């Protein structure tokens, strides 16, 4: 199967995987040939990528960092927890005694287990799940990326677990913001942006009162928008005053935000999201964490079509561990001429490089 952007879908292409919502319900079945109406609807729903059937790539296995069932359950739980906290109100700490935190911690344990027992690098999380609110999907994606970074850094399990829980709850402060500001589709005014910038502190104040949560979990909410050079918010602290969890979450948060469709811009591809991080490496983001993340993620996911430096076009077949930008590819076109497909391992052909996407 082949990975394409929803905007690049052509009428008549056949879906290789079903389109699901965050409740696990199938919205568009596998094997459906898409019409323009379906394409328009998928774009309206915010679907960033889809997998389509393709004879030259029918044997390619699409690897997910966590199972579909786990992602659906995680999104559902985050949604339930966030709605519960919102309904109880900012000053109501009765949540300290319910089971929601325990349930979320159990999910984090499962995510850690799946990631740490998987030999594959992390693939793109913003794929074919439709969530009725970006916030919930984003929370699960950031958790997965943060755990992958912490695992690659070989942090102790207790720290990975605290970070994972903090990542799940890093945006909890947003539930206390006005809906009309949080979900505004147009450009925010300066006043509205100042309101948005209060969510890290709101989240911190809400979480730190819990006897069930480590203060580091609360600091994940507090620091995920801080930057090394002091240009972040809410406090404008610099790198030396930031906890490593805040630095990790800053990287994971920006990557998922840039590679997901938003109401105000289209999603970037993984390499483009990494370029944003590298542009801020050493000034906005910790260089070692950016480098670690690069080594943890599939920059060119399985099934994506890429351009090579020698004018060949190819589909990514599988990843080479620790060689993020040198996967095995299947050449399908040479100098704009269709050829009999053949596989090429870029880890063994160092003079051949990927120069960009072709989707």
UniProtKB/TrEMBL annotation:
Top-rank taxon, per record: Bacteria
PROSITE patterns linked to this entry: HD_GYP (PS51832)
Any Pfam family hit: HD_5
Domain (HD-GYP) ranges: 113-309
Classification via CDD domains: HDc
InterPro entries, A to Z: HD/PDEase_dom (IPR003607), HD_GYP_dom (IPR037522), HDIG_dom (IPR006675)
Protein name (database record): HDIG domain-containing protein
């Amino acid at each position: 199967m082949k990975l394409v952007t929803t905007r690049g879908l052509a009428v008549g292409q056949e879906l290789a995987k079903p389109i699901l919502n965050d409740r696990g319900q199938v919205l568009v079945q596998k094997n459906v040939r898409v019409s323009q109406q379906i394409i328009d609807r998928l774009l309206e729903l915010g679907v960033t990528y889809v997998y389509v059937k393709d004879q030259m790539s029918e044997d390619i296995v699409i690897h997910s960092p966590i199972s579909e069932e786990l992602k659906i359950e995680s999104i559902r739980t985050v949604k339930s927890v966030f709605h519960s906290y919102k309904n109880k109100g900012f000053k109501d700490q009765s949540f300290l005694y319910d089971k929601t935190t325990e349930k979320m911690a159990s999910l984090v344990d499962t995510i850690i287990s799946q990631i740490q027992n998987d030999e594959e690098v992390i693939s793109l999380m913003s794929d074919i799940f439709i969530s009725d609110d970006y916030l919930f999907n984003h929370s699960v994606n950031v958790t997965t990326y943060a755990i992958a970074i912490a695992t690659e850094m070989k942090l102790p399990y207790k720290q990975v677990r605290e970070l994972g829980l903090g990542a799940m709850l890093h945006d909890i402060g947003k539930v206390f913001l006005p809906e009309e500001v949080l979900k505004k589709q147009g450009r925010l005014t300066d006043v509205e942006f100042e309101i948005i910038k209060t969510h890290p502190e709101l989240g911190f104040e809400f979480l730190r009162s819990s006897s069930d949560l480590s203060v580091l979990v609360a600091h994940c909410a507090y620091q995920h928008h801080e930057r090394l050079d002091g240009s972040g918010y809410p406090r404008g602290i610099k790198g030396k005053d930031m906890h490593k969890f805040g630095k990790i979450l800053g990287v994971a948060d920006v990557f998922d935000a840039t590679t997901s469709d938003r109401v105000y811009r289209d999603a970037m591809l993984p390499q483009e999201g990494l370029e944003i991080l590298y542009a801020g490496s050493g000034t906005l983001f910790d260089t070692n964490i950016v480098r670690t993340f690069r080594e943890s993620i599939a920059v060119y996911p399985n099934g994506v079509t890429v351009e090579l430096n020698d004018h060949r076009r190819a589909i990514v077949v599988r990843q080479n561990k620790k060689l993020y930008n040198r996967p095995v590819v299947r050449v399908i076109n040479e100098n704009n001429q269709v050829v009999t497909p053949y596989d090429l391992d870029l880890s063994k052909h160092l003079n051949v490089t990927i120069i960009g996407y072709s989707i």
